[in-house]
Design brief:
CATH architecture of the largest domain: 3-Layer(aba) Sandwich
Radius of gyration: 18 Å
Number of domains: 2
Distance between the termini: 31 Å
CATH topology of the largest domain: Oxidized Rhodanese, domain 1
CATH superfamily of the largest domain: Rhodanese-like domain
Largest sheet: 5 strands, parallel
Number of helices: 13
CATH class of the largest domain: Alpha Beta
Order of helices and strands: HEHEHEHHEHEHHEHEHEHEHH
Shape: globular
Strand order of the largest sheet: 1-5-4-2-3
Helix content: 25-40%
Strand content: 5-15%
């Protein structure tokens, strides 16, 4: 797959440092520091980490408050925010219609990808994820600031529907034919351990494809060739339909970004597992990936 596809999704720390040095006013950097929930119910706010050190010029984004609506039955822990609310937030971050946006976090993009996906869903086309996140930025020796950044409001207009989504019925239909990926860890997929949601297991027929497998040991996105092989093993190829879900629609966006980086468009089941099990009528399956078992037979 060409570098152009990957470059449209990811930016390296070296590239971002060069863009910052150019001091181009259309560059907006968003710090989406966030931690995966632990099951304790306690809200984890990354603002303290942001104030301890962030990329110069970066604006802090609260994932729970600005990149999601309040939890709701059947809609999961991170429903889509109303587009008008997202637009207000995007303007407060200084985004204009022609802005180039870079998002990052400190968990290899697994939280920041939610901002990447939402802004693209709202119609922005130039949104990239910092490969390796804040850790890679620091390791590379780039400067860090600790001030609270405030910016002049932008005037961007967002409209919904620019990234594909699945309904619950579609998610079940796609899973039945092997076109739905579960991006959670294997133990949660198999139903061996569920630290957050009310039921353990997976949508019947979904394939197990943990988000963490998109990354190298250094927390960078794996090379395009490796990602192509990884997803081909799940029978996912360019031009063929595929959907993704996770626990609440956050880390699944990372999976969609990985797929986009190799030229594969994927649809998001936004409510994900937390929304799926919020409806007692939805079937639940446990155990190993049935598609892998069939392939091994």
């Amino acid at each position: 797959m060409s570098d152009t596809t990957r470059a449209a999704v990811l930016v390296t720390s070296k590239q971002l440092a060069a863009e910052i040095a150019d001091t181009q006013e259309d560059l907006v950097i968003l710090d989406v520091r966030w931690e995966l929930p632990t099951g304790t119910g306690e809200k984890v706010d990354g603002h303290a980490d942001y104030l301890a050190g962030h990329i110069p010029g970066a604006v802090y984004v609260d994932l729970d408050a600005q990149l999601a609506a309040p939890p709701a039955p059947g809609e999961g822990r991170h429903p889509l925010p109303p587009i008008d609310d997202l637009e207000v937030a995007a303007r407060s971050w200084g985004i204009h219609k022609d802005s180039r946006v870079v998002v990052y976090d400190d968990i290899s993009g697994q939280g920041a990808a939610r901002a990447w996906w939402l802004l693209r869903y709202g119609g922005l086309t130039d949104v990239r994820i910092l490969d390796g996140g804040f850790e890679e930025w620091e390791i590379s020796g780039h400067p860090v600031d600790s001030d609270e950044v405030t910016v002049m409001p932008g005037d961007v207009t967002l409209t919904p529907g620019h990234m594909p989504v699945l309904t619950a019925d579609q998610a079940l239909e796609w899973a039945a034919r092997g076109d739905l990926l579960d991006a959670r860890g294997g133990v949660r997929y198999r139903g061996e351990f569920e630290p957050i949601d009310v039921k353990a297991g997976h949508i019947p027929g979904a394939r197990s494809a943990p988000t963490g497998h998109n990354l190298t040991r250094d927390g960078l996105f794996r090379p395009a060739e490796d990602l192509t092989v990884r997803f081909a093993a799940h029978d996912v190829r360019p031009g063929e339909p595929v959907g993704v879900y996770c626990g609440s629609g956050v880390t699944a966006a990372h999976q969609i970004a990985a797929l986009a980086s190799i030229g594969i468009e994927a649809a998001l089941y936004v409510p994900s597992w937390s929304g799926w099990v919020g409806d007692d009528n939805h079937p639940v399956e446990t155990g190993p990936d049935p598609w892998r078992q069939a392939a091994a037979a």
